[in-house]
Amino acid sequence: VVALTLDVSGLQANPALKDAAEFERIEGTLNTKLDVKTRGRSQREMVQALNGSGRLNFADGAIRGINIGAIIRNVREGNFDPKARDKQKTDFTELSGTFRITDGILRNADLALLSPLLRVTGKGTVDLPKKTLDYRIQPKLATTAQGQGGKTDVAGISVPVIVSGPWDNLSYRPDLAGAVEGVPAEALDRLKEMVPDVGKSDGSSDSGKSGSSPADTLKKLFGR
Fold this sequence. Notes:
The protein is α+β, with helices and mostly antiparallel strands. Helix content is 20%, strand content 42%.
């Protein structure tokens, strides 16, 4: 049995994650606490037998391959590329989360990303042996410009996004069904501002017919 306990701060995230896990999607300064155990005769066996827990905190960096802010800013045009591209990037002031690893599967339920105009929460799993991930994230455009140390619970338009696939070929798609659940009136009002004809019937706005449902509103936003 091999045991490893780490409490490290000030690491450059990209080279550290590249060397440790061949993962090159995150930039920034890494602070981490890690307590894991494993066994095996090869690297693959040791990754499959990995168990433990830890916490990651990245500061002043970026996630490569996805621009979460643009997803929300461009919802009116439905400009949603299903494949993440290397040139895209989501800047952040803070990205953090705790996790548990069981037999090589990492589970995280408190992902939090903060930037001056964006807040993201999320949860998901990372299959370390297969080098794949499956996450559901909840981004919001913030009404405050506070970055590090700011609140994750802010008012704003929220469109859940599913991020999944191999580490080197991630894809993402809007979770429209999830977005409809619990949509507050304030958010719907802001959606109507972004899509001028939301709430109108196929005829004129004063035709007396019922307006669009939340599901119709979101489908209109994404051109579905």
